[in-house]
């Protein structure tokens, strides 16, 4: 019904199926709607009926009565300034355009106009762009005065048409003058120019409504807005334009670039063989070489994401997006130019130390100009000197207090509980250990780790007792990696194993690794494809043990990045976000709940597809799996990922790291109490759960209200059947029939976007910034006596160790990426916080009180975690040189802080 109002007057005449707005001229005669630039007061004024004179500056409300009283209403329109715009030029442009047009605003009532069977409407043009001064420097406010009849009812939506040539960023509109106080229309959205899209934008007020509760006057608008977001009327295959706000799905068929080089061809991810979550559709044409492959768009041109998903320009100079782009466009090429001719291994540990003391000297003169504009944070310090530029790295937290901690076994084990990848350790539940891989391909399934061998490392405890007391744990990468090892090791400079590590929780409460099994695929030339290593006490075995641990760490770094970080947080969130926009109206309470947790994720994922995970990108160049990296990620999605196990308690129980215990706050008891990620994570999890349950209870009081919510059911259905299409037939998808079902699903999603991502993401530089602690790849196999260079290892084991690690260029590249990915931007929004510009996100005092309770609980959790970090009985987070576990502290300042839980995955 509102289709006519969504089109600007000059462009709808030829659209016969939509009502021509010019017909409204009849009702323009009755009430004056005056829109002027004004700084008048906000008082509610009742005036006498207006005369019947036709006003050129506005229209009348439909349904307005000739004899009705009117009220004066002021609309305050808040717009965010562009950081890099030319204000003089823009103001001139606005003025020129504004003389006749400006912006057009329609207020839509929640009540139906009987004459038209749609919401009552008043319309006006705001002319000119002379801003009112604002207290906040980066915003400008405009105001427009309306006069509406008293029987108009409460405005529930605004249609806004931008008649200027340029888009603008609308933060909010506030209507003053109604008797029950101001009415807020939160927007935070880009309003496209009519030149780009003739449809008006629909902005709803901040009242949350389930679909069945939608006021009659805006029912049609609710539907029309969703249709527009789904791309209604736009061919699915058409290429998206930057001003579009269309959310749709596509497979990962854009990682390769076969048109550029056949070596850069990569298989499609998102089919039966290589399942994967869906990403946001861009509609780019296929490549010439492969019709199934989407053509690439390379830096500096951006990949399409819906307009409101792009990073804000505000504070661009220190903004994470700007830094990320600078990293890809300037720093990495500059590092490569500086080091490529001498891409050699580190020869001694002091060369690594020099990165923090002296820095890397970037000598490439051509790079100087752009590098001087490089946006760096606290960690990568740059110092200008004549003709040269220094890139200095900050000392990573893992070696800040104790330079040699990484060498210790207990530190290796501590990082499995409190490091950047604390989600792969499992209780050893069964013994012997068997592979689930096909024995016909991969050989006998039994592990080479024996009970006798383990018993030698248990300090006198029997193996049975250690199992009974749940003291044995495993980090098992065997089945995930072995199918890829042959291919990985065929790549230049890559030598990896599939590892298993057994850890023992001693009676003193200290976890330590006691055995490492390194496996290669079975080949006739190497029948002993599985070797088991234990801690050595002589010079040779000591260094062998160090090398075995380094191989485990490089397995861990790859699985962390490709599975736990990229797949399980970034990639799996993307379909939830697309479905939320497509299926839930912005007035839906669940949309409002999820909105802060979707910020910037599509944009950061698009940047990653362009620069990080693409064929020939930084991940391939820096991590062991090389060009097979994303295939490995797909295999993990195929074999391991399940939505119901992404809940923290369920994941801990699956891994045997917790047992069900109804007496505990989250219903689980940890097997290792001193497990910082899990202990702090359960606090955050339970706070989110309590907030979500109270929120859901508030909006879904009726027993059948979940199953009758058509938008909600469409949302969940689309997540399963479109967003995670390749997993659509899995039996483990939770049902969505009850409030409990909904709360559980939402708690999992919010946890993944906030706490889980923070725990997995922001420790990347603090732990990975020291290459020996966490090499992203290994370049040599373990030394064996039969090898020709075994003698070199015996003569100089340190050099052998260092030459097994990433080269200087590989290491410095990864350090630069990890630094940027570990950085909080200055405009980060943390869990429990609301941006001050979004204070009016919902018109519901009860919900605001519940949110305040959630924020208070997070403050308490901050104190609890701080106290834990001072408890000397917790050896995983205290002790000489041991960094505290802060990754799940809710708040942080900007930069690389190793703490802070942003609401969403934004880096
Ligand atoms: Fe991330």
UniProtKB/TrEMBL annotation:
<dbReference type="InterPro" id="IPR036392">
    <property type="entry name" value="PLAT/LH2_dom_sf"/>
</dbReference>
<feature type="region of interest" description="Disordered">
    <location>
        <begin position="41"/>
        <end position="66"/>
    </location>
</feature>
<keyword id="KW-0443">Lipid metabolism</keyword>
<dbReference type="InterPro" id="IPR020834">
    <property type="entry name" value="LipOase_CS"/>
</dbReference>
<comment type="similarity">
    <text>Belongs to the lipoxygenase family.</text>
</comment>
<comment type="function">
    <text>Plant lipoxygenase may be involved in a number of diverse aspects of plant physiology including growth and development, pest resistance, and senescence or responses to wounding.</text>
</comment>
<dbReference type="InterPro" id="IPR027433">
    <property type="entry name" value="Lipoxygenase_dom_3"/>
</dbReference>
<feature type="domain" description="Lipoxygenase">
    <location>
        <begin position="208"/>
        <end position="907"/>
    </location>
</feature>
<dbReference type="Pfam" id="PF01477">
    <property type="entry name" value="PLAT"/>
</dbReference>
<dbReference type="GO" id="GO:0034440">
    <property type="term" value="P:lipid oxidation"/>
</dbReference>
<feature type="region of interest" description="Disordered">
    <location>
        <begin position="260"/>
        <end position="295"/>
    </location>
</feature>
<dbReference type="InterPro" id="IPR001246">
    <property type="entry name" value="LipOase_plant"/>
</dbReference>
<feature type="compositionally biased region" description="Basic and acidic residues">
    <location>
        <begin position="260"/>
        <end position="276"/>
    </location>
</feature>
<keyword id="KW-0223">Dioxygenase</keyword>
<dbReference type="InterPro" id="IPR000907">
    <property type="entry name" value="LipOase"/>
</dbReference>
<dbReference type="GO" id="GO:0005737">
    <property type="term" value="C:cytoplasm"/>
</dbReference>
<dbReference type="InterPro" id="IPR001024">
    <property type="entry name" value="PLAT/LH2_dom"/>
</dbReference>
<dbReference type="InterPro" id="IPR036226">
    <property type="entry name" value="LipOase_C_sf"/>
</dbReference>
<keyword id="KW-0408">Iron</keyword>
<keyword id="KW-0925">Oxylipin biosynthesis</keyword>
<dbReference type="Pfam" id="PF00305">
    <property type="entry name" value="Lipoxygenase"/>
</dbReference>
<keyword id="KW-0560">Oxidoreductase</keyword>
<dbReference type="InterPro" id="IPR020833">
    <property type="entry name" value="LipOase_Fe_BS"/>
</dbReference>
<dbReference type="GO" id="GO:0046872">
    <property type="term" value="F:metal ion binding"/>
</dbReference>
<keyword id="KW-0444">Lipid biosynthesis</keyword>
<keyword id="KW-0275">Fatty acid biosynthesis</keyword>
<comment type="pathway">
    <text>Lipid metabolism; oxylipin biosynthesis.</text>
</comment>
<dbReference type="GO" id="GO:0006633">
    <property type="term" value="P:fatty acid biosynthetic process"/>
</dbReference>
<keyword id="KW-0963">Cytoplasm</keyword>
<keyword id="KW-0276">Fatty acid metabolism</keyword>
<feature type="domain" description="PLAT">
    <location>
        <begin position="81"/>
        <end position="205"/>
    </location>
</feature>
<dbReference type="GO" id="GO:0016702">
    <property type="term" value="F:oxidoreductase activity, acting on single donors with incorporation of molecular oxygen, incorporation of two atoms of oxygen"/>
</dbReference>
<keyword id="KW-0479">Metal-binding</keyword>
<dbReference type="GO" id="GO:0031408">
    <property type="term" value="P:oxylipin biosynthetic process"/>
</dbReference>
<dbReference type="InterPro" id="IPR013819">
    <property type="entry name" value="LipOase_C"/>
</dbReference>
<protein>
    <recommendedName>
        <fullName>Lipoxygenase</fullName>
        <ecNumber>1.13.11.-</ecNumber>
    </recommendedName>
</protein>
<feature type="compositionally biased region" description="Polar residues">
    <location>
        <begin position="41"/>
        <end position="59"/>
    </location>
</feature>
């Amino acid at each position: 019904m509102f289709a006519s109002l969504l089109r600007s007057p000059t462009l709808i005449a030829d659209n016969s199926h939509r009502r021509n707005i010019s017909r409204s001229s009849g009702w323009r005669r009755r009430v004056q709607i005056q829109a002027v630039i004004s700084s008048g007061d906000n008082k509610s004024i009742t005036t006498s009926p207006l005369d019947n004179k036709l006003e050129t500056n506005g229209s009348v409300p439909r349904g307005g009565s000739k004899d009705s009283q009117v009220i004066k209403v002021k609309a305050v329109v808040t717009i965010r300034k562009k950081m890099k715009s030319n204000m003089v030029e823009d103001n001139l442009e606005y003025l020129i355009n504004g003389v006749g047009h400006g912006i057009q605003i329609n207020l839509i009532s929640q009540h139906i106009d009987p004459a038209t069977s749609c919401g009552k409407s008043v319309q006006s043009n705001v002319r000119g762009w002379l801003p009112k001064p604002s207290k906040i420097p980066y915003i400008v406010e405009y105001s427009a005065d309306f006069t509406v009849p008293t029987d108009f009812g409460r405005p529930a939506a605004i249609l806004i048409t931008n008649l200027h040539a340029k888009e603008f960023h609308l933060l909010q509109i506030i209507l003053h003058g109604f008797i029950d106080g101001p009415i807020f229309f939160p927007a935070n959205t880009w309003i496209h120019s009519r030149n780009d899209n003739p449809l008006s934008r629909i902005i709803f007020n901040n009242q949350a409504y389930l679909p069945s509760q939608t006021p009659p006057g805006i029912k049609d608008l609710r539907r029309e807005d969703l249709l527009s977001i789904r791309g209604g009327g736009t061919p699915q295959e058409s290429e998206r334009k930057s001003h579009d706000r269309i959310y749709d799905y596509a497979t990962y068929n854009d990682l390769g670039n076969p048109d550029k080089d056949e070596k850069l061809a990569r298989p499609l991810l998102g089919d039966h063989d290589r399942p994967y979550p869906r990403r946001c559709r861009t509609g780019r044409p296929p490549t010439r070489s492969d019709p199934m492959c989407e053509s690439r768009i390379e830096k500096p041109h951006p990949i399409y994401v819906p307009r409101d998903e792009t990073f804000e320009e505000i504070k661009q100079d220190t903004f994470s997006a700007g830094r990320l782009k600078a990293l890809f466009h300037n720093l990495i090429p500059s590092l490569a130019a500086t080091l490529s001719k001498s891409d050699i291994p580190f020869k001694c540990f002091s060369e690594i130390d020099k990165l923090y003391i002296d820095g890397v000297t970037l000598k490439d003169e051509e790079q100087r100009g752009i590098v001087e504009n490089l946006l760096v944070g606290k960690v990568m310090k740059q110092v200008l000197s004549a003709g040269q530029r220094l890139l200095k790295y900050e000392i990573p937290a893992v070696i800040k207090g104790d330079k040699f901690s990484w060498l210790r076994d207990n530190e290796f084990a501590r990082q499995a509980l409190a490091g950047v990848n604390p989600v792969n350790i499992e209780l050893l539940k069964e013994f012997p250990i068997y592979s689930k891989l096909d024995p016909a391909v991969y050989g006998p399934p039994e592990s080479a780790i024996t009970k006798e061998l383990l018993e030698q490392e248990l300090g006198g405890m029997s193996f049975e007792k250690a199992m009974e007391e749940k003291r044995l744990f495993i980090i098992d990468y065997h089945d995930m990696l072995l199918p890829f090892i042959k291919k990985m090791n065929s790549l230049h400079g890559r030598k990896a194993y599939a590892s298993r590590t057994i850890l023992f929780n001693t009676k003193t409460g200290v976890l330590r690794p006691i055995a490492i099994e390194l496996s290669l695929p079975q080949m006739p030339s190497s029948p002993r494809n599985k070797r088991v290593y234990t801690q050595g006490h002589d010079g040779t075995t000591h260094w062998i043990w160090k090398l075995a641990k380094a191989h485990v760490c490089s397995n861990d770094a790859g699985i962390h990045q490709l599975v736990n970080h990229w797949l399980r947080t970034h990639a799996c969130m993307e379909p939830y976000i697309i479905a939320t926009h497509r299926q839930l109206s912005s007035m839906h309470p669940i949309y409002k709940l999820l909105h802060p947790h979707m910020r910037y994720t599509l944009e950061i994922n698009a940047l990653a597809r362009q620069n990080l995970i693409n064929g020939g990108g930084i991940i391939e160049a820096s991590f062991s799996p090389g060009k097979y990296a994303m295939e490995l990620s797909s295999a993990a999605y195929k074999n391991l990922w399940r939505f119901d196990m992404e809940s923290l308690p369920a994941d801990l129980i699956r891994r045997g790291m917790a047992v069900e215990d109804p007496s505990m706050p989250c219903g689980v008891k940890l097997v290792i109490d001193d497990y910082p990620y899990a202990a702090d994570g359960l606090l955050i999890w339970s706070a989110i759960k309590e907030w979500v349950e109270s929120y859901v209870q508030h909006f879904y009081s009726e027993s059948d209200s979940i199953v009758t919510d058509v938008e909600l059911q469409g949302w969940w259905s689309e997540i399963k059947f479109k967003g995670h299409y390749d997993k659509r037939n899995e039996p483990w998808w939770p049902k969505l029939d009850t409030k409990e079902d909904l709360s559980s699903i939402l708690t999992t999603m919010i946890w993944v976007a906030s706490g889980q991502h923070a725990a997995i993401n922001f420790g990347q530089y603090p732990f990975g910034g020291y290459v020996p602690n966490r090499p992203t790849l290994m370049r040599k196999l373990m030394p064996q006596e039969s090898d020709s260079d075994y003698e070199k290892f015996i003569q100089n084991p340190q050099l052998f160790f260092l030459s097994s690690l990433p080269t200087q260029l590989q290491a410095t590249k990864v350090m630069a990426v990890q630094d940027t990915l570990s950085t909080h931007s200055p405009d980060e929004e943390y869990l429990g916080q609301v941006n001050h510009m979004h204070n009016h996100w919902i018109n519901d005092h009860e919900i605001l009180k519940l949110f305040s309770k959630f924020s208070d609980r997070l403050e308490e959790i901050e104190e609890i975690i701080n106290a834990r970090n001072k408890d000397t009985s917790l050896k995983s987070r205290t002790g000489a040189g041991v960094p505290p576990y802060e990754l799940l502290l809710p708040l942080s300042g900007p930069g690389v802080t190793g703490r802070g839980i942003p609401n969403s995955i934004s880096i």
